Amino acid sequence: MHSDNNKHLLWRGLLGWAFLFLPALLEGISTPAIGLWLASVFLFWAFMLWRPALVLALLFLLTVGTVNVVHIGFFGNLADQIFLATAQRTNWEETREFIGVLPWKWVTVAALWLVAGIFAAVQVWKLAPLLKRPSWPWKVALLGLAIWVVFIAFALAKRYSFEEVTRKLKTIYPMHIVRAWTAQQQLTEQLFYTPKLPSTTAQTPQVDTLVVVIGESASAERWSLLGYQQADTNGALAEMQNLQVVRAMAHGLNTAAALPYLLTGMSAQQSVEDLAPSFLDIAQHAGYKTFVLSNSRYHSSVEDFYGVTFRRAADSFVKVGNGDWDGVLTAPLEAALHDPAPKKLIVLHTYGSHFQVQERYPRSAARFADVYDNSLRYTSDLLVQWIQRIEQSTTQQQTAMLIYSSDHGVAMPPCADHYRTGSGLSSLQVPLLVWSNLALSAQRAALPQFADHEREHLVRSNAEVADIAVAALGFPDALKSSHRRELSFNGLDWTELQQRDACSLQ
User: Among 158, 204, 281, 472, fewest CB within 10 Å belongs to which?
Assistant: First the structure.
């Protein structure tokens, strides 16, 4: 490697290799981040010693890099376990809708990066045959290989599992995605656990009929009951008696991350580790007949946390629709309400305001110019209908409660070109609603007490859906840490999040 041409090839190859690892810095440039980036460039340089392995490495780096660029545009972080969980459970219809709301600025950036990455990969490929002893690039590659051999020998001696190895290497790009894959595989394998149930009987009076409505992509920012003034997005819901509505914090930016909190009060990973019961498990334990009526998209055969949780604890699980308008849930709800069982828990899993938003409501429900406002009004009108059905199905002596919250909100203009899943304060603020009938309202001790200022100021987590539900079932202390829900996301508390950029949380 002494000719001028070879020197040019060397430097183009080195720069090209370093470029393929640049997505590691997308989450933020700092001294530690630059150090880890250089460490990644150095350690994986060993692939230059064997061209078949180099081909795989280049293809992997190009693929993961492109995904990371788009993922940063969506969520502000590199692709992670939640990305893989979502990808596993997404069907073609959701993929079509997802493509329609892609942040095209970041898609363009990703396309440009891919073109540049392919050029960089070509330079690396041209350099590989020239790496021969005793040149210094060959020695560096050999040193990197030696480090890998020592690490593997150490891992074998310690009898580390593959999962433990990937956990220790996750800060070395692109091992984060390998770590995410192993963690997701481990979670999937552990989904079918037996939850730890309370050993006691009901501690407080039980609500006769409990309906839990799990919303989708509803942001508190656009609820007129919570201060939004551009459109009456809640309509007749505001006139309902014995209704409490507050802002609450979601714990994820998409369903895979956020929905488990509504079921068990914690993340899917923590729920599996703790063998945590969901409020549906508690309901079965308490002698309720349980119904789950779902209008979410039909997913692939890959199991997810909430699908398993619903089926495990449902006496009746009905896939009502496949992302149709949520009005399809009304008839089966009415049938469940008239079931002769004395105590009933009914869960309605809606499709809410999921993108594409304009497809989430019938044309007759288009009251406003804004499609997102229309979708929220449609949901509110359905909540009114469902509350009326509950009232009609119960006697004056029977108690009834409806709980509603969304798993997460949405990114919206001006933070995004479309209403979509994404990073931002609007994605983390959702409505939390509790309605009670007259018989239950007379028992104020059985109801959560929300303060008026909570309509404007967020002081609660939507994980309290699970807490309120188990309290209504007669087991107020059945869920771990039910007395305190941390208002935190990605290790940041709500106060700190509010001080960051409202669109990116950076």
Answer: 158
pLDDT of residue 392: 96
Strand partners, 457: none
* Local structure of 239: helix, strand or coil: helix
pLDDT one-digit tens code per residue, 268-307: 999 999 999 999 999 999 999 999 999 987 655 567 899 9
pLDDT in tens, 335-357: 999 999 999 999 999 999 998 89
How far apart are alpha carbons 109 and 107 in whole angstroms?
5
| Separation CA 176–CA 25 (nearest Å) | 13
Under 8 Å between Cβ of 422 and 74: yes
Q: Which two tokens stand for residue 481?
A: 């840490």
Cα–Cα distance measured from residue 263 to residue 310, given in angstroms and rounded to the nearest whole number? 9
CA 108 to chain centre: 25
Structure-block tokens of residue 231: 């459109």
**Per-residue b or e along 174-184, where b marks 16 or more CB atoms closer than 10 Å to that residue's CB:** bbbbbbbebbb
* Residue that has been written with the tokens 């891919």 in this structure: 114
Contact 270, 481 (CB under 8 A): no
Per-residue model confidence as pLDDT tens digits over 481-498: 654 578 999 889 999 999
Query: Which two three-digit tokens encode residue 149?
Result: 């051999």
